[in-house]
Amino acid sequence: MADFVIEPPPVSTVPVAGGGLFPVRRVFCVGRNYAVHAREMGADPDREPPFFFTKPADALVTQAMVAFPPATRSLHHEVELVIAISHGGAAIPVASALDHVYGYAAGVDLTRRDMQDEAKSLRRPWDMSKGFDESAPIGTITPAARIGHPASGRISLTINGKLRQDGNLADMIWPVPDIIAFLSNLVILKPGDLIFTGTPEGVGAVERGDSLAADIEGIGGFAFRVE
């Protein structure tokens, strides 16, 4: 047994449909992967290869309550398809990328937008606008062995029952195999890695007391409340 000088932190996990827990190693996120959302954020999606940022594994939230974070007056929602990696590798070919996927989930990338905008204007990193505590609510992972690899299907988010985001997985600029292949040329992917794949248009503010529900056709959804 290792001689740790402090108690090791717990492993972050996500429930799996049908039972069991998926242990999480790292959380990668793709930025601006839907053309309309990229344009609403002031970018030109036709000229941009995929880029990535990260969140801590313990930023994942699987309970029904999320704390409104400090240091922001503009918390935004971004509903996303999440890929769960079961087999790692480097320089993974697009043709075999789906062989590395365990399953999929719906997730929400919460963003301190005012903090991010300030960091961008000052040309500073914006890690703290994305990687804060409880910034990655996520639903149950559904194994690909059960549902296959959805390349299309509605992805949506409601707040207090009103539709805020409504898109289709087919509208991703970089689909799942391309994301895996591209990212594996930047880092060696490992079992337990999660990849948030970007959000469709319609991102907006979340207030204290709001109830959010995310859903992806063929995968499922989840709901949580911000307090």
UniProtKB/TrEMBL annotation:
Q: Is-annotated flag, keyword Membrane?
A: no
Q: Which UniProt keywords apply?
A: Hydrolase, Metal-binding
UniProt xrefs under Pfam families = FAA_hydrolase
Fumarylacetoacetase-like C-terminal domain segment(s): 27-226
Q: What residue range is the signal peptide? A: none
| GO MF term (any one) | hydrolase activity
* Superkingdom classification of source: Bacteria
InterPro entries linked to this entry: Fumarylacetoacetase-like_C (IPR011234), Fumarylacetoacetase_C_sf (IPR036663)
* Gene3D superfamilies reported for this sequence: Fumarylacetoacetase-like, C-terminal domain (3.90.850.10)
Q: Report the protein name in the record.
A: Fumarylacetoacetate hydrolase family protein
Q: From what organism does this protein derive?
A: Acidiphilium iwatense
